[in-house]
Amino acid sequence: MAPLDGVDSIAILRARTGLGDLLCGVPGLRALRARLPRARIALITYPEMAPVIERMRAHVDELIPFPGWPGIPERPVSDPAAFLAAVRGFDLALQAYGANPAANEAAAALGARRTGGFFLPGTIEPDLAVHLPYPQHRHEIDRHLDLMAHLGAPPQGRELEFPITPADEREAAGIDAPYALVHPGATSPSRRWPVERFARVADALAARGLRVGITGVPSEADLVAAVRARMRAPALNLCGATSLGGFAAVIRDAEVLVANDTGAAHLAAAVGTPSVTVFLAGDPVRWAHPSPHAVARVQVECNPCPHLVCPIDHRCAQRLRVEDVLACLP
Question: Helices 263-271 and 244-252 meet at what angle, rounded to 10?
Fold first, then answer.
C-alpha cells in the first residue's frame, strides 16, 4: 500500500515566517494536490502568513494558525494545548519545517493517524515509509519535492506561483513603464548590501532610461529613504505603497528587480520578472532561481553563514562591488 493511499486529510507543519520559505514550498504542494485532488490539505503556520496562503488556494484548503512550540524559534509559544485540541482528526501529519527535532515533536503531537515528514537521523525512530532524512544539500524547492515524491506524489514542475488578481492590477496601474525596481531591505542585517551601493545601481538603471522605484515593507522606510538620498537621479518611493498582491503586480510589470536575498526576489521568480539577487550571508545553493534570475555574490571564507548580524566585518558585503552587480543585469 502506497503511503498516500486512503489519505483524505493532511496537516502540513510549515511554521515559517518568510515569504520565500512559503513560496518555495508551492511546487511540493502542487505535486501533493495532483496526487490527492480531493483531499483536505491544511498548512500549519503563523497567522500573519494568511495573505501568502490565500494565493495557494489551488493547493491548500486552509491555514491552521500555529501558536509556536518549544524549540521552534520563530515565535514565542502561546497556547499549544488549545491548538492541539482543535487540530485532531487528520489522516497524515507532515513535518515540513526542516532540520529541527522539535518540529517532529510538534507534528507527532497533532494526533494524526500517521506522522511523517523530514527528520534528522538519530533524533527519532522514524516510519521510513513516510519520513525522509532532511536533504541538507538540496535547494529548498527540491527538498519539498523530494518529500512528496517519497510519499508517492511525483513532481509537477519546479515553478513558483503567485496568482495576481484584478485588485492587484489596479494597485500597480499608477507606475509609468518602463521601470526597474531596487529592494535594499532584508530581514537580517547580514543579508543587506550597503545602501550607497544600491543607490549607485539605481542610478545606473536610471541612466538606461528606466524609471526607478525603491521598494520595501513599512519597517524598511529608513533604508528606502537612505537609498533615495544617495541617488543622483529621481526615484519613486514605493515603500509600503501596496498590499502584498499589489507588490507582486508591481514586480511583474518591472523590467528588472535588483534585491537582497529576501522575499521580493522569490516574488520575481514567481511572476517571471528578470532579477539580480545579492547573496551575502545567504546560500544560493538553497535559495537562488534559474535564469532569468542572476546571482551577484563574492565567495569569502565564511559565507554562507547563519548569523543574523555579521560578528566580524561583513566582508561578503564589502567585497561585492557595484560593478559586479551591474554585470549581472539583463
Answer: 60
Burial, 189: exposed, middle or buried (Cβ in 10 Å; 0-12, 13-18, 19+)? middle
Q: pLDDT tens digits, residue range 278-313?
A: 999 999 999 999 999 999 999 999 999 999 999 999
200 — phi, psi (to 5°)?
A: -65, -40
The residues with which 95 forms a beta bridge, in sequence order, are 13, 117
Which residue segment(s) compose the domain that 134 sits in? 9-151
Cα–Cα distance for residue pair 189/112, rounded to 1 Å: 39
The whole-angstrom separation of Cα 4 and Cα 232 is: 58
* Other residues' Cβ atoms within 10 Å of the Cβ of residue 258: 30
Shared-domain flag, residues 146 and 208: no
Render pLDDT for 24-64 as a digit per residue (tens, 0 to 9). 999 999 999 999 999 999 999 999 999 999 999 999 999 99
Cβ atoms 135, 285 nearer than 8 A: no
DSSP-derived secondary structure for 265-328:
HHHHHHHT--EEEE-SSS-HHHH---TTEEEE----TT-S---SS-SS--HHHHSS-HHHHHTT
What is the full DSSP assignment across 45-65? Answer: E-GGGHHHHHTTTTT-SEEEE
Q: Please give the angle made by the CA atoms of 310, 74 and 188, to the nearest 5 degrees.
A: 25
Specify whether 145 is located in the same domain as 192: no
Q: Helix or strand or coil: residue 212?
A: strand
pTM for the predicted model, two decimal places:
0.95
124: left (phi over 0), alpha (psi -120 to 50) or beta: beta
**Of 136, 151, 166, which residue constitutes the final position of a domain?**
151
